[in-house]
């Protein structure tokens, strides 16, 4: 079993794609997406995702809770730009749970905004771009989509070590040990880290 955390609209074929977005419930109520569309409550991208069945492929998994899987039962875990969306204690719970459910030899692949790169890219001529990246990755103004925290390679590795991982390696875009690595990465300018159990 391969587990995808905080998938949102990125469905990995052959993976268990999970999130907590309300879209996954709405998608399961016949007629409701059409109703919301008619009421003007969905944007173009959401309409397309409902029509393509994207949200129906999501399963609910809240990374602040215990994962509903047995110890050592998961082959690989992937999370893309999800850790920043939760407070640090929730991120730690998530990494602890990843370690618990991964099978020996299993791999966790995390991609996130690289804090070092973001700081290096800061341009005093356009400070808003930096602030937007720090607090609100998708530029949405909704509070639930805010970013809570950011990591560089060192602080992410520290968190992974606390979770129990000992082999932690920085990776390049679409390169690494994680299964399907050529297709699961979608954000080239990220920090990619793999941790092996
Ligand atoms: C910035 S989006 C990233 C979406 C996608 N992985 C990508 O790279 O485009 C962060 C995702 O994390 C999800 N998320 C936030 N809190 C979560 C939680 N407690 N458990 C699981 N997913 C969560 C959000 O619903 C959202 O879909």
Structural notes for this entry:
The chain has eight helices and seven strands, in the order ββαααββαβαααβαβ. With 197 residues, it is α/β, with parallel strands linked by helices. Strands 3-2-1-4-5-7-6 form a seven-stranded mixed sheet. α4 (88-101) links the parallel β4 and β5. It is globular. The model has no long low-confidence stretch (mean pLDDT 94). It binds S-adenosylmethionine (SAM). S-adenosylmethionine binds at residues 6-8, 10, 19-21, 62-64, 80-82, 85-86, 137-138, 187.
Secondary structure: elements and pairs:
Layout: E1 2-5, E2 16-19, H1 23-26, H2 32-38, H3 44-51, E3 59-60, E4 74-80, H4 88-101, E5 102-112, H5 115-120, H6 127-135, H7 153-163, E6 167-171, H8 181-184, E7 191-196
Helix pairs in contact: 4-7
Bound molecules: S-adenosylmethionine (SAM).
Would you summarize the structure shown here?
By secondary structure, the chain is α/β, with parallel strands linked by helices. The protein has one domain: Rossmann fold, CATH 3.40.50.
Output the CATH topology: Rossmann fold
- SSE ordering: EEHHHEEHEHHHEHE
What count of helical segments does DSSP give? 8
Tally of separate domains: 1
| Rg from alpha-carbon coordinates | 17 Å
Report the principal-axis shape.
globular
Largest sheet: 7 strands, mixed
Strand content: 15-25%
Q: Trace the largest sheet across and list its strands.
A: 3-2-1-4-5-7-6
Q: What class, by secondary structure content?
A: alpha/beta
Number of strands: 7
Bound compounds, each kind once, are: S-adenosylmethionine
CATH C-level label = Alpha Beta
Distance between the termini: 15 Å
What is the mean pLDDT?
A: 94
Q: Please mark out the parts with pLDDT under 50 across 5 or more consecutive residues, or reply none.
A: none
CATH architecture descriptor text: 3-Layer(aba) Sandwich
- Share of residues in helices: 25-40%
